[in-house]
Specification:
mainly beta; 11 strands
């Protein structure tokens, strides 16, 4: 199982980023895919989740600003992040939650 995140970077408050996660070695359509983040000194937390059938849920802190989507044919899940805030800073990980599989993470820094 391999999950590879991309798209992180440095962005100013109010800006946008799009994260992508490419999967291999799994039956992707069977995965409930989650995006998690971990800020320095804090526990990893769920940001957004999308089921194999496309049902989504979001952390209260990002609802209305972030959108999770998936393309089962391309075996990819994306996280569109708009109106970013400094508190969104952290390492973002994607996960196939059914398998307990994780990517290596991508850093997102929101700062002026």
């Amino acid at each position: 199982v391999q999950l590879v995140e991309s798209g992180g970077g440095l962005v100013q408050p109010g800006g946008s980023l799009r994260l992508s996660c490419a999967a291999s070695g799994i039956i992707f359509s069977a995965c409930s895919m989650g995006w998690y983040r971990q800020a320095p000194g804090k526990q990893r937390e769920l940001v957004a989740r999308i089921s194999g059938g496309g049902t989504t849920n979001y952390a209260d802190s990002v609802r209305g600003r972030f959108t999770i989507s998936r393309d089962n044919g391309k075996r990819m899940v994306a996280l569109q992040m708009n109106t970013l805030k400094p508190e969104d800073t952290g390492v973002y990980y994607c996960s196939c939650e059914n398998r307990g599989s994780w990517g290596q993470g991508t850093q997102v820094t929101v700062s002026s």
